[in-house]
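tl;dr need the bound structure. longer version: we got a ligand (2-phosphoglycolic acid) that a collaborator sent over and nobodys looked at where it sits. i said id run it. heres the input, straight from their email, havent touched it
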Amino acid sequence: MTTHIRQRFIVGNWKMHTTAFEAQQLAKGIVDGIGTADHVTAVVCPPFPYLALVGDMLKGSSVALGAQNMYPETEGAFTGEVSPTMLLDLGCKYVILGHSERRHKLGESDGFINQKVRCALDSGLDVILCVGETLEQRESNQMETLLDRQLKLGLAGVSSESLPHLSIAYEPVWAIGNAEHHATPQQAQDAHAVLRRQFSQIFGETEAHRLTIQYGGSVVADNTAAFLSRHGVDGALIGGASLKADEFLAIIRAGIFEIEAEMQPV
Ligand code: PGA
């Protein structure tokens, strides 16, 4: 197998935060500070109402636009929902699917998430599929079974041709928005190894080797290097810390530093 260095993938999930003015200021701060961001793919995912506004501000920059969710139909009578076609129309390249807040607070099932994954990929969006166990599941040794289920059900029917447009975010539910209780880099590395093995059982070793897996759960500028220096931790999905331009930029810089270190000949 040839050595394949995966770009670092840094995604800001703004969740249900910011006003239009704040979204504009935040996007401006990121665009002004980012530069070329070599070897890092940087993405911001604002709330739906600000996608057009933020998308306009990102034009010509190295930051891509993503959405936090979508409905798995291209159009139709689905009051209040947003289609992949609309997201593409607004300039989105990415969509986050299966976030734990949607699984646990809005009751999304693996089957529904799978419909979204397939519809998004068929429509031409790049999918960030979130998986992760609760504390109870971890403590009762169900983590591996749970990740296997979320992966298998979430990716059912996905073709190998779509895989360049898919990444996985490992987000242990107990570590999200919880600075006191974030996962250790070792826990993240171990879970990523589990996911990569499970992925290889579905799609084969070469595809698993190519797969980008990012960690999410209370990543901040100060702990980014500790996560991203771990083997198999290819990026970060960031909530709270992505709402401050300086902090988000520092996370991106840490990503650039780590990939450049990895690319150095030994
Ligand atoms: P957090 O959120 O960085 O605030 O923990 C991460 C996420 O939910 O994607």
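gonna send this back to them w/ a short note. The pocket of 2-phosphoglycolic acid is lined by residues 13, 171, 176-177, 216-219, 237-241 (CB under 6 Å).
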